[in-house]
């Protein structure tokens, strides 16, 4: 089985497609000096990892630690194993609810049920590997290393979304207001995330949107029918707090066209306990 979402080739934008945008990310990141006072931001340097594949699965309930069910792509012997604390693959599993959130005032709380996993596979870039092997770590690369190695640093993970075709979308007042307010705004994912690793090949980040606040889940529920018409970039980074940790650098960035969740294959791990991926 190949990755379930096709990679964009050339200028074609037909169907659900993804494209790596590691060298042209539009996201601006924290920069010193004295960010807390000055609030300086600048375009990110090139990312540390490239996206090599995207899967979208329908599931009857959310699944954590998907890497235990997925065979990652083969890589050359020289690229295998952890280098200076970082693995060759970082996998992000974004678990999305397929049901409307109950009203928090009178509904019964629901934190699991039918939904989707959008799984992004990131592979370490040669430049990142060379810097790690030479011990020449930028502040952001050192911060990423600490994030992977030290659980106390994992409160720093943040994601951001840039919707590129908002004027073309048929949005109501409430949804347009939400998208205007939060577009390109970094959001810390704590505490709705978990982390898994085999200490050799991958570090997996599971983002649980089922546990997000009511307004965020309601906003996603309203946006979901429109996703097949949306074009957007998604990026993530590790938040720097001091001048010594800045400027931040985007970990990876992908460009998504017309994401159709309901057309995704349904995955049943009782029937298919291992999904083999190829680049």
How would you characterize this protein structure?
There is one protein chain. The protein has 279 residues and is α+β, with helices and mostly antiparallel strands. It is built from 5 helices and 15 strands. It has helices at 35-38, 126-134, 139-149, 173-182, 214-223, and strands spanning 6-7, 17-20, 28-30, 41-43, 49-59, 70-71, 89-97, 115-124, 157-163, 187-188, 193-197, 202-208, 231-238, 252-257, 275-276. The mean pLDDT is 90.
Fold blueprint:
Blueprint: E1 6-7, E2 17-20, E3 28-30, H1 35-38, E4 41-43, E5 49-59, E6 70-71, E7 89-97, E8 115-124, H2 126-134, H3 139-149, E9 157-163, H4 173-182, E10 187-188, E11 193-197, E12 202-208, H5 214-223, E13 231-238, E14 252-257, E15 275-276
Parallel strand pairs: 1-2, 6-15, 7-12
Antiparallel strand pairs: 2-14, 3-4, 5-8, 7-8, 9-10, 9-13, 11-12, 13-14
Give a summary of the structure in a few sentences.
The chain is of the alpha+beta class and 279 residues long. It has five helices and 15 strands.
Structural class by secondary-structure content = alpha+beta
Supply the number of helical segments: 5
Task: State Rg.
Answer: 19 Å
SSE order, one letter for each helix or strand: EEEHEEEEEHHEHEEEHEEE
Q: Summarize model confidence as the mean pLDDT.
A: 90
Shape, please? globular
The side-by-side strand order for the widest beta sheet comes to 1-2-14-13-9-10
| Quaternary structure classification | single chain
* Helix content range: 10-25%
Low-confidence stretches: none
Distance between the termini: 10 Å
Number of strands: 15
Give the percentage of residues in beta strands: 25-35%
Largest sheet: 6 strands, mixed
